[in-house]
Amino acid sequence: MKVLLLNGSRREKGCTFTALTEVAKALEANKISTEIIHAVPDDQIVKEVAEKIKTADGLVLGSPVYWASPSGEMVTFMDKLSAIAGADLRHKPGAAIASARRAGTTATLEVLQKYLMYCEMPIVSSNYWAMVHGNTPEEVKKDLEGMQIMRVLGNNMAWLLNCIAAGKAAKVVEPAKEAKVMTSFIR
Predict the structure, then answer these.
(1) Of the residues 2, 7, 34, 36, which has the maximum number of CB atoms within 10 A of its CB?
(2) What does the radius of gyration of the chain's CA atoms come to, in whole angstroms?
């Protein structure tokens, strides 16, 4: 099994990467392979990630807080990715994490989780909101509660992936995809 972790930060190896690395360590300790991808909204990278999603078993979205929201880069990346690979995400476990110096984390998580919900992904949680605090990677590592939250999230995702695999082995049937109904409120 494999989980893709998307780093929506402008800084490839910054605070968000540090938090995603802690999630990845927990997944790998549970025999789940991982790949952290710097999710810059370049069309070629979006296409490469869309291809990888076809065989991936789970997805973690990570973003720093910019202006009480995910980075513009992450929103653009996810808008593009959802348009071309949303169907391939259906029923794959997903999680979202936020990294902040101080505030805006819950608003960031809410935006990121909407992508997961729209794609019908089971959302993986932790023992608190999935966020870390710090202005540098070194400060994030000192956020002991935040780092524990990342480990618990990774362990919970590994458990859910194993439950899904067991369900498939037991021939539990996945719900059929219904055709999307689009309601117009303009008459």
Answers:
(1) 7
(2) 16
HSE value, Cβ hemisphere, 13 Å, CA-based, for 63: 30
Say what the pTM is.
0.96
How far apart CA 36 and CA 47 sit, in angstroms, is 16
Place of tokens 């513009």: 72
Q: Which two tokens stand for residue 34?
A: 């991982």
Taking the alpha carbons at both ends of the chain, their separation in whole angstroms is 48
Close Cβ partners of 139 (under 8 Å, ≥ 6 residues apart)? 15, 133
Per-residue b or e along 42-74, where b marks 16 or more CB atoms closer than 10 Å to that residue's CB? eeebbeebbebbeebbbbbbbbbbbeebbbebb
Per residue in 88-134, pLDDT (tens digit) is 999 999 999 999 999 999 999 999 999 999 999 999 999 999 999 99
Class of residue 150 by CB neighbours under 10 A (exposed 0-12, middle 13-18, buried 19+): buried
DSSP 117-141: HHTTPPBP--SS-SEEE-SSHHHHH
Distance CA(72)–CA(40), nearest Å, equals 10
